[in-house]
């Protein structure tokens, strides 16, 4: 007779790990900005810096496990008797199982290593040459991981502010829509046909009496009104010059966190708004928000004028009620793109030519109706003086803040925008 033996289920340690908590602990690793390197990231190494090795991920997970609470304490103590992954196969297997779970949940994605074979000249005729050793395996964080990091940052920021959620940008105007919030009005061409049936029938009866059949005319039509909610186009200007990681403080990682939180806020609470991200350094470039987590600073100067130029071109394509530039910086403008394409650089004080050309771009923003709000991560005298000029010219706002309070200031400014900005 065949017997079936039952025993108590013993779950694997990797299956007990809370992936949300693990991702929160890995946030600094995923969002690293080159702060560990004394020279930042050079242009030549920029593409390579956006790729991360699997061994680096294993080390980051090991550090997260060492903080405790992710696996049972007795198992953790046993595994960490030898924390060297190259010698502790049991610990390495556990971490590989955790990485496999991260892949299955869609947080990370391994990249296939390229295989290289010798050229035909070095291969004996009729034989297949031996494959060269594969390059080190790499991984990429997915859009789901980036969105999770933005949500986590947003949740932490709103929790510190005592807020649970934010609505859309309300104005004092009324418009026709699905959600009624005001008195009915006569229908006009172009209105949303959210019909006020009782009001329409009342007009018809008042005009023709109670006789049947009841004839409706164009002038009888009544539609509900709802509160008009404005839309906003925002360009986030991020300074990624070398000073963002100097003086013993990483200012760029908090800026990236806030950008991801703002992107998550707009996607979930303000679906009619748009957000674009522009990095400015020796020049300026627009990047997809999905790649923001992997951006690092480099040995660059600060070309504020080129960032404003690119932001204006982006906002010119946006048909929104409000258009604004949110600039996060910690340094004065120190670079300028000349007409022939060369980059003029001067990091000493406020260069009159650089300031004059940059202020001309600020004036163009004002003429185009674009608001500039500046968040300063430093209190340098030259920077304060420069930002004061911007604020006076474009009637925007300037915030003297730190990497620790940047998110609170920026998010509160975004959601508390007053109706006078669009009227």
Verbal overview:
The chain is of the alpha/beta class and 423 residues long. It folds into three domains: 13-111 and 134-140, no CATH class; 146-168 and 231-421, 3-Layer(aba) Sandwich (Rossmann fold); 171-229, no CATH class. Helix content is 37%, strand content 17%. It is built from 14 helices and 14 strands. The strands form four sheets. It has a six-stranded mixed sheet, with helices on both faces. Strands 1-3-2 form a three-stranded antiparallel sheet. A three-stranded antiparallel sheet has the order 4-6-5. Helix 10 (252-269) runs parallel beside helix 14 and helix 12 (352-367) runs parallel beside helix 13. The radius of gyration is 29 Å and the shape is flat.
Layout of secondary structure:
Elements: H1 13-16, H2 19-25, H3 27-30, H4 46-49, E1 52-53, H5 54-66, H6 73-79, H7 89-104, E2 108-111, E3 138-141, H8 143-161, E4 170-176, E5 182-186, H9 197-208, E6 222-229, E7 232-239, H10 252-269, E8 274-280, E9 284-287, H11 304-316, E10 322-329, E11 335-337, E12 343-345, H12 352-367, E13 371-376, H13 381-394, E14 397-400, H14 406-415
Parallel strand pairs: 7-8, 7-10, 10-13, 13-14
Antiparallel strand pairs: 1-3, 2-3, 4-6, 5-6, 8-9, 11-12
